[in-house]
Amino acid sequence: MMKYWRVWLLVIMVFASALAIGLKDYPYGREGVEVVYISESSPAKGVLSQGMIITSIDGKQITSTDDWLDSLDSISGETPITANGQQFELNVTGPIGIDVMDMETLNLEFGLDLRGGTRIILTPEESNATEEDIAQTISTLQTRSNLYGLQEINFYSVKSIDGNHYIQIEAAGIRKDIVDELLSRQGRFEAKVLKPVEIENGAGKIQLGSSEHDVTLSTGGAIHMGELTVQPNETFALDGIEFRYLDTNQSNRIYLMALVYGDDDIELVYSDPQHSGIIPQSNGFRFYFVVLVSTDGAQRFSDVTTGIPSYLDINSGERYLDSSIYLYLDSELVSELRISSELGGKLYQSPQIQGFREDKEDAIEEKMRLQTILRSGALPVALEAASVDIISPTLGGGFFTSASYAALMGALIVFLIVFLRYRKIRIAIPMIFVAFSEVLIILGIAATGDSFIWGIALVLNFLLIATAWWKESDIDIFAWVGALVIPVIGMMSWTIDLPAIAGIIAVIGTGVDHQIIIADETLSGKEDRVYDIKDKIKRAFFIIFGAAATTIAAMIPLMSVGIGLVRGFAITTIIGVLVGVLVTRPAYARIIESLIKK
């Protein structure tokens, strides 16, 4: 029995792969849909969460996304929904705001090409972005996505052949406006205060806290402060505060725009009802929230607002400074707020950000977007969307079905060609079996959550090769390596997408080629007694190992450069080649050797 230990090794690998793929836990049943996104205005917000499995709504069984979409047309009011085996009550008064996808029935993580979703490629606007900048950017984007509730989203750092860095984002369901307004936004926050300075007879004073600075206005519009001369629209620093001199063409007053708060000054973004909310107005909804800024920022605000005159608002009866505070995000004005006269010259650490939208859901989303960006901080580099690909689940399922049909058709054609070539079904059947075994093992390695299964396989393989060595069976170093290395590789996982399927098909092709080489070498030259069967198999494996090494060498560069699509093809091809030369080819050679001897 031990002389067939290579075949038993293949059997162990195939059995472990089948368990790794299909042995899946279903705590809430095999049918249902998975929640991938819940909008801020959804009645399920705070009730359900991403990753939950919905099995029924309003008494209707949910087995697929089609069932879910059909059920949404007739629900309203108090609606029972079952998720994760528990029943919840939702008060549905409009769109339910829940995006779902079909449950995964296998331990395989399918790519967006097969299950649908959105793939975004972001590129830095600056050509000198480093790997550290990209890593920090991805960390910030992950924080933003978590704060926004986009947990089913993956970020990858990729590098092109010419050395440019990109960020690839994959998500089960994400709208393009979220990409534009949340993920690709740099998020650089600035709060500026308009500082008016009275000019009389060409001279005036700039008061900053307890200090004063003499300023003169020349006929050309430039201002002079000691040895400092500033032209209109130029920036300068005074007492550690950055100013910009605005060109107003006025002889009795000049305006300076002072930067009082920046990214580093934001310490807390409030979201509680006392500091944030949505207020209905006659033609829409106004949102607001408060941010807590640092003491240094508050000191700059105090210094800049010192000495600014105030005026009485006739409509409200309150006094305000003759100035405003302007809040910018990526140089775009998001709020312009009046400053109460009571805050002039005071340490002001809680500015309020406001906005307006005609629709309540838009107001809620805009408020949440601004809060998320301010909480996560600014990105190290500015990004722009290089491409946005949206694939529907229906189209993805069509891709998978087409790829499956292509694989079956290819297998049938290969079987017929091999049978016609050798005219012996006992040669063709093992060849096809080994080819499908390679596919199963590749998928088993790619499966998720299978470390325990592959750990058992590793132990069984070790006992198998130890017994074979003890029984003084044939020594095969490469098969021994495969017995120990392949289960270890099996504890990793990667996404099965169209490029990965292309890699599997390529592996099938090379695998059949290698098996044909083994069969030809062992079946040819029956009258030639110079070489026995083992010598012929060694000659065949010399050719096979040379071809495998060439393939692996060609794939390795694709793993470190190029967009992730190419990387998936390279990984699958390399894993398939290793499985072939270390496990399936030795097993097939032993089968052929046994058949010829008989």
Notes on the structure:
This protein is of the alpha+beta class and 598 residues long. The chain has 4 domains: 2-24 and 392-597, Multidrug efflux transporter AcrB transmembrane domain (Multidrug efflux transporter AcrB transmembrane fold), CATH 1.20.1640.10; 33-102, Roll (Pdz3 Domain), CATH 2.30.42; 117-186 and 382-391, Alpha-Beta Plaits, CATH 3.30.70; 188-364, no CATH class. 43% of the residues lie in helices and 27% in strands. The chain is built from 14 helices and 25 strands. It has helices spanning 5-22, 65-71, 112-115, 131-148, 176-183, 295-305, 360-376, 393-422, 425-446, 451-470, 477-490, 498-523, 533-560, 564-597, and strands at residues 33-38, 53-57, 60-61, 77-83, 86-92, 98-102, 117-124, 153-159, 165-171, 189-198, 203-208, 211-217, 223-225, 228-230, 235-238, 241-246, 253-261, 266-269, 276-281, 284-293, 310-312, 319-329, 332-340, 352-357, 383-391. The strands form 5 sheets. Strands 10, 15, 16, 17, 21, 22 and 23 form a 7-stranded antiparallel sheet that branches. Strands 1, 2, 3, 4, 5 and 6 form a 6-stranded antiparallel sheet that branches. A hairpin with a 6-residue loop joins strand 21 (310-312) and strand 22. Helix 1 (5-22) packs antiparallel against helix 14 (564-597) and helix 12 (498-523) packs parallel to helix 14 (564-597). The longest helix is centred in the C-terminal third of the chain and has 34 residues, at 564-597. The chain is elongated, with a radius of gyration of 34 Å. The two termini are 16 Å apart. 38% of the residues are buried. Residues 526-531 have low confidence and may be disordered.
